[in-house]
Amino acid sequence: MRIAPEEILETIKMIEDLNLDIRTVTMGISLYDCSDSSIKDTKKKVREKILRLAKDLKKEAVALENKYGLPIVNTRISITPVSLFYPAKDVVSLVELSECLDGIAKELDIDFIGGFGCLVHKGETAIDSMVISSLPFVLSQTAKVCSFVNVASTRSGINMDAILTMGKVIKDIAEKTGDKDSVGCAKLVVFANAVEDNPFMAGAFHGPGEPECTINIGVSGPGVVKYALKKLGKEANLGEVAETIKKVAFKITRAGELIGKEVARRLGVSFGILDLSLAPTPAVGDSVAEILEAMGLESAGCFGSVAALFILNDAVKKGGLFASSSVGGLSGAFIPVSEDKGMIDAVKRGSLNMEMLMAMTSVCSVGLDMIVIPGDTPEDILSAIIADEAAIGVANNKTTGVRIIPAYGKKVGDFVQFGGLLGEAPVMDINTFSPKNFINRGGRVPSPVIGFRN
Amino acid sequence: MESKVVITVLGEDRVGIVATISNLLASHNINIEDITQKILKGNIFAMIMLVDMQKSDIDLVGLRKNLEEKSKELGMKITAHDLDLFNYMHRI
After folding, report:
1. What is the number of domains present in chain A?
2. B89 and A257 in contact by Cβ < 8 A?
3. Contact A8 B48 (CB under 8 A)
4. What is the CATH number of the domain that holds B32?
5. Residue A309: HSE in the Cβ half-sphere, 13 Å Cα cutoff
6. Which helix (H) or strand (E) holds B5?
C-alpha cells in the first residue's frame, strides 16, 4: 500500500474524532449582467442566473461528502455586492431584492447567501447610502442573507463618516431583531481591507475582480491542531510548536483542495481559492482558544495570548501556502467568541476581555468576531470599536472585521443563544467612557505611509 | 463510480473480523487488493484494507451502510474513504 497505515489512521482520527471538516463550499456568482433599473426585472434575472449556476451545488456537495467521507458543513453563495449591480432608487426595492435572495437560498437549500453590502472605504455613492439604510430591514426580515460594509483600506484610509453611520445601523439591527437576541447583527461584518474571494460568512462577497462563477472552499480543523500540539508535549520549544502546526495545516489544506477542485469540476466552473481558516464551532474540542491553551496558556486571554495567536496564525498560513497554489480568502485563525466553547469559557472565568480580544485581532486572520456586549451600549462606542479595528487593519495592511452584537435588553453577565454554528455567548463588559466627541468629528482618516507602495 | 477505497476497522481484537468483512465485500463483488493489520497501543486492533469497487454492485454510500451494520455486530469502528483523500493529504 502506498500510504502507510499510520497515515491512514491519522486521517481517520482527524475526521472521526477531531472535527476536521470542509466548513463551506461557497459558489461565487457575478451578477453584473443582472443589472436592470426595474426591480421586477432585476429579481427575475438574479433568480434565473443563480438557479441556473447553483442548482446542483448542494447535490454535488453531498455527493462529495459521501465519496470522501469528509463532512461538508455548509454550502453558500456569494454574489457581486448589491451596490455594484443594482441601481437602486429606493430602500424598499433593496429590501425586496434581499427577500428574493433569501427565497433563492431557501429554494436551493443552501445555508447562507452573502454580498448584500457595499464598499465605501473612500466614500459613499447614493446607492451605497441606500444599501446601508436598508440593512436593518434586510437583516431583520431575511434569514439567510448576509451583509458586509467595507469602511476602510490601507490604500485609501478610514471613512469615519461611514463608521459613524454603522454604529447607528448596528444598534438599529439589534433592536429590530431584539426578540431573537439581536441575531441580525451576527449577519453583518464591517470590514477594513475586505477580500474579494472570502468563502466565510457573514462577510463573503464576490468581488469586482472575480470571474463569472467560481468555487471557493473554506476548510477548518482547530481540533486537529490542538491534538497535534498535545501529542508534541510540553517540553517542545515554540519553534517546534510552529513547525508542528505548519505540518498539520498542510494536510488539512490538501484535503480542502481535493474537494474544491472536484466540486468545481463537477459543476463545470472554475476553482477559485482555498481558505484555510481555523474556524471554531461550539462543539467540544473544535476551539481555537483550546489551541492557545495547549500551547501553554492557563486560559485564553491571559498575557501571552497575542504571541501564541501570532505563532498559530503565521504557521497555519505557511503550511497552507505550501500545500496549495490557490490559497486565498482570509486564511489563518478566527477568534469568534460565541462560536468557540473555549473562548466562552475564558470569558466566563474572567480571563478574556474586550481589550485582549482587540489586541489579538492584530495578529489573527480577521477581527472582533461574534462578541456580545450590553444592549444599551451607545452607538458612538460601537463606532469607536469599529474605528479601532479599522485602524489595526489599515496600519498593519491586513483584513480586520467587526461582527459585534449589542444584544437588545441584555446586560453584562446575561447569556444569549443564536443556535447552530453561531453558538451562544455571555454578554461582555466594555469600557463605557465616551469616545463621542472623537467619533462625531467624522471625515476621512488619511491612508498610512505603508499604503503608498507603488 | 468510486474505484479505490480504503476501509479501516478499529477496536478490540476478536475472532472473525477479517472473515466478516471479507465475506461482505465478496458478496458485493468488491475486490480486496491489500490488507494490513496492526496492534496499536492499548491493545487496539487495526485493520486497513485497500479495495477496488469498480465492479461492485453497490456504491460507497451503500458500502458504508453495510459496514455500519457489521460494525454494530462486531462492536468495532469501521470507516470507508476514497483513496484519493489519503493521497492528497499525505503525498505531494
Report:
1. 1
2. no
3. yes
4. 3.30.70.260
5. 29
6. strand B4-12
